[in-house]
Write a structure and sequence with these properties.
heterodimer; A: mainly beta; Immunoglobulin-like; 1 helix; 11 strands; globular; disordered C terminus; B: alpha+beta; Glutaredoxin; 2 domains; seven-stranded mixed β-sheet; two-stranded antiparallel sheet; elongated; metal ion binding (chain B); metal-binding (chain B); SCO1/SenC (chain B)
């Protein structure tokens, strides 16, 4: 009984954290931030993960802050090395991974920061025509409903990189 | 207090003590027995799959050396590459003489043939990919108590699947799972504990 209350509390705490992470900027990610500015949007910390041999899809991540007073929305994504680009939401429920394509794109509310990161929102590049190689840069074209189009360089990191700054393959611990 | 009351009080204390002893014995011996029963349930089945090194993969394949089993698919941009990357770093840490075997079993046999999986997992030390007919993969999914479900999307489909890495000891018995993004240190400690037996 107490255990389940405790568990519920811990889960609620995690839920709160997950929500908080979407609207706050992790100060530790600042140093690598060379912001790409598009209208009221500021995009930082872009990275992709190197693909494994024969991996037909790739993942991309970045942080976007909407400094304006109007909501915006990421509606499409493309690269020169993939036939398609999708915006995904990933969730983990009872250790089961679920991934869904966001058909209506990803909302970037006024005054907020949205983080695309492993385990959460991400870009998925489908039909890759060449592998994504660690150390190289992948230019990705993002289209926002209001702000328009911009090309953002994504630094290609290790296949299990947790963030744009990490160079170690196990920087999670 | 009459003699009789005192007698009952002592008897009551004895009952409490015996219950406590019983609970202790149950917790110490019976509960691990229950866990052992679970260990025997995860893994065994009549699936027959094929590995990227050309061997068949059955319930007996887990015997002989400790192994890690992970279910995933190649059309997966996040969890599967992360997990394989993590497993590769465990192997580096364990060192060439103490590495465990790694079986990457696809939950998407329609797209992941043994041929496709060869290079996908080939860079991970001591790892093989495992695929087979959809029916046999389905049997393995059930045998390992894995959740896997095909989810249609407008331009194809994706897969929901369990993200735990399952550890099996040298006797082919389920040891413990390693959760997705469980810390590197904890994962390696778990494997070493399994190797010590």
């Amino acid at each position: 009984m107490y255990k389940s209350i405790l568990l519920a509390g811990v889960l609620a705490g995690f839920g709160g954290l997950a929500i908080a992470e979407q609207v706050t900027v992790d100060p530790s990610s600042k140093p690598s931030a060379h912001a790409v500015i598009l209208g009221q949007l500021s995009i930082t910390d872009g990275f992709a993960r190197a693909t494994l041999p024969n991996q037909p899809v790739g993942g991309g991540f970045f942080t976007v802050t909407n400094n304006g007073d109007a909501d915006d929305r990421l509606v499409s994504v493309s690269t020169a090395v993939s036939s398609g680009g999708e915006i995904h939401e990933m969730s983990m429920t009872d250790s089961v991974m679920k991934m869904r394509k966001l058909e209506d794109g990803l909302a970037i509310p006024a005054g907020e920061t949205v983080v695309l990161k492993p385990g959460g929102f991400h870009l998925m590049f489908t039909g890759l025509t060449q592998p994504l190689v660690k150390g190289e840069v992948l230019p990705v074209t993002l289209t926002f409903e209001a702000a328009g189009e911009v090309t953002v360089p994504l630094a290609i990191k290790a296949p299990n990189a947790r963030g744009s700054g990490g160079h170690s393959t196990h920087d999670g611990h | 207090m009459t003699f009789q009351r005192k007698h009952y009080a002592i008897l009551g204390l004895w009952v409490v003590a015996l219950i406590a002893l019983g609970l202790f014995v149950w917790a110490r011996f019976a509960q691990p027995g229950y866990q052992n029963a679970m260990a025997d349930v995860i893994g065994p089945g009549d699936y027959e799959l094929v590995t990227t090194s050309g061997e068949s993969f059955t319930q007996d394949s887990l015997k002989g050396r400790p192994s890690a089993v992970f279910f995933g698919f190649t059309h997966c941009p996040d969890v599967c590459p992360t997990s394989l990357g993590d497993i590769a770093t465990w192997q580096e840490e364990l060192g060439a003489d103490n590495q465990i075997r790694v079986f990457f079993i696809t939950v998407d046999p329609e797209r992941d043939t043994v041929e496709n999986l060869k290079d996908y997992v080939g860079w991970v030390p001591d790892a093989v990919g495992v695929s087979g007919s959809p029916e046999e993969v389905e049997k393995a999914v059930k045998a390992f108590k894995i959740y896997a479900r095909k989810v249609p999307q407008d331009d194809g489909y994706t897969m929901d699947h369990s993200s735990n890495v399952l550890l099996f000891d040298a006797n082919g018995r389920f040891f413990e799972p390693v959760g997705y993004q469980e810390s590197f240190d904890r994962a390696v400690a778990k494997i070493r504990r399994m190797q010590r037996g």
